[in-house]
Amino acid sequence: xxxxxxxxxxxxxxxxxxxxxxxxxxKGVRRLNRVIIRFAGDSGDGMQLTGDRFTSETASFGNDxxxxxxxxxxxxxxxxxxxxxxxxxxxxxxxxxxxxxDAPNVLVAMNPAALKANIGDVPRGAEIxxxxxxxxxxxxxxxxxxSSPLEDGSLxxxxxxxxxxxxxxxxxxxxxxxxxxxxERSKNMFALGLLSWMYHRPTEGTEKFLxxxxxxxxxxxxxxxxxxxxxxxxxxxxEDFAVSYEVAPAAKAFPVGTYRNISGNLALAYGLIAAxxxxxxxxxxxxxxxxxxxxxxxxxxxxxxxxxxTFQAEDEIAGIGAALxxxxxxxxxxxxxxxxxxxxxxxxxxxxxxxxxxxxxxxxQRGGPSTxxxxxxxxxxxxxxxxxxxxxxxxxxVAPRTPADCFDAALEAARIxxxxxxxxxxxxxxxxxxxxxxxxxxxxxxxxxxxxxxASGPNHTLADGSEVFWPYKRDPLTLARPWAVPGTPGLEHRxxxxxxxxxxxxxxxxxxxxxxxxxxxxxxxxxIEVPDVEVDDPHGARTLVLGWGSTYGxxxxxxxxxxxxxxSIAQAHLRHLNPFPRNLGHVLKQYDRVVVPEMNLGQLAxxxxxxxxxxxxxxxxxxxxxxxxxxxxxxxxxxxxx
Length: 642
Hints:
Elements: E1 16-21, E2 28-32, E3 34-42, H1 47-61, E4 64-70, E5 85-93, E6 106-109, H2 112-118, E7 127-131, H3 137-142, E8 159-163, H4 165-172, H5 180-184, H6 187-198, H7 204-213, H8 218-237, E9 243-247, E10 259-263, H9 264-279, E11 283-287, H10 294-300, E12 308-312, H11 316-328, E13 332-337, H12 339-355, E14 359-365, H13 382-387, E15 397-398, H14 405-420, E16 423-429, H15 430-434, E17 436-440, E18 460-461, E19 467-468, H16 511-526, E20 535-536, E21 543-548, H17 552-564, E22 570-574, E23 576-578, H18 584-588, E24 593-598, H19 603-612, E25 617-620, H20 629-641
Parallel strand pairs: 2-9, 3-6, 6-7, 7-8, 11-12, 11-13, 13-14, 14-16, 15-16, 21-22, 21-24, 24-25
Antiparallel strand pairs: 1-2, 3-5, 4-5, 10-17, 15-23, 18-19, 20-22
């Protein structure tokens, strides 16, 4: 994870640090402290791949970075239309940053739809690179333009670079035995090469990647490499780009260690594998594919060498049913899904509460309700995770705050599940899942010891002196019941959703016993040991901004901006949402005003108001996109001044 040292550069405009002219009249080099680039095009133009490759080279160069992929839910929306636009935004810097950036300094638009869909986010004075080959009369009509913005003066306030990307790509590949249509597909590599020249990105990694990706089609690999090199050479030779840019590595932003670029879903998958290794338990994933959680299933299926077993079920109910069965059998069991899948899994989650077995329920939240916005982000499943089951069925809830933090959150969720014998919700979201940042690979000795003891024999003595196994006899500290692996002699016991008798586990309809079991299950969750919430308040502020999950980056960036401007504001961020940290009530009562920004209509604020009787003020957004730092800074400034 990147360093959290406060930096005024987070709020600064992208600035020119210096400019130098190469000897012999060559092009100048301008040094910047940070840049925000957005690649945008049709969903078939390869913008996600282009952005991912630029990100990988940027990570290898040593910049701090944060990304925001944004793509349509349709597999292939109509070409050239606004619903079919796919984009990838990358913010990289020579210092510690926290968000993908509010507005791009550079927009690469592959067609009119991409330009129209994104121009509203681009500030005046920014650079726009457009593929002029796509600005035909028909393409303009598809997006409702009567005239071309490249010719009617509407882009006069920008640094416009008209580049015939398609024509140049086809020309660069004329020596290859490819049809024109096949050659045109490499135009994203031409654009990548051009941007790589502009920002002095390394090239070796991308060329190696292309040869690996198209290993079975070496001619396609070499064609893409040729287009990539042609884009680089075009930047070097054309008169239109007089200056290239340098963003130095973020040498002071990171603690010493080995780093790699990682997305939230990949970090989460690695965290699950690490948890199984630290627990010395096989990892079992029972899942049904659903956006944006499917990448976890894909990744875990590649790691059979770590004892990982993955089961792609026929539906959500079968997926969690298989996972719960694996938990009964002694595995570290996981099911992955998004909000619609949680609704289908709710009965089995309640069964896991009743059985008191460790089970990780990973919910990568997306826009709802129902099918909602499959590829857009939201934080609206919190109350569903807390209460979305029949009866009193309490479940711990853990939420990561950054893509890299998904690794640690997975380990923490596993710790709680294994220690307290309970299902645990891990609430990530689409912003974290698809976004990426540098991640310091931890040393093995830094990882927690998650090993557990299975029940091995009798644990209770009856009045007549006989020794028996009681499946619901509890650990006096954690209230966890013993975990008995099926097939262990003498440990046979009943399971199922019918209420159990305390201790013996026999079926019981006794009212007093049911009251005891309900209260005991709640007490077990309430008693989970979680760290106190930490408060960042260097100036003794009167206003506290409280967040959870993926709002961490935008909130922290907004707080930095306010403090740089001389304002006093405190910040706290929650990882544990059930149970809350024990000191949270005390913290909240220290401030005159508590503001809770959320990508929902105020779910955490509702819980805070109900639990602590604090007049928490919500600041909400449900447009499928993460908060912008400047937007939050303005809202928090109003709260401070109120």
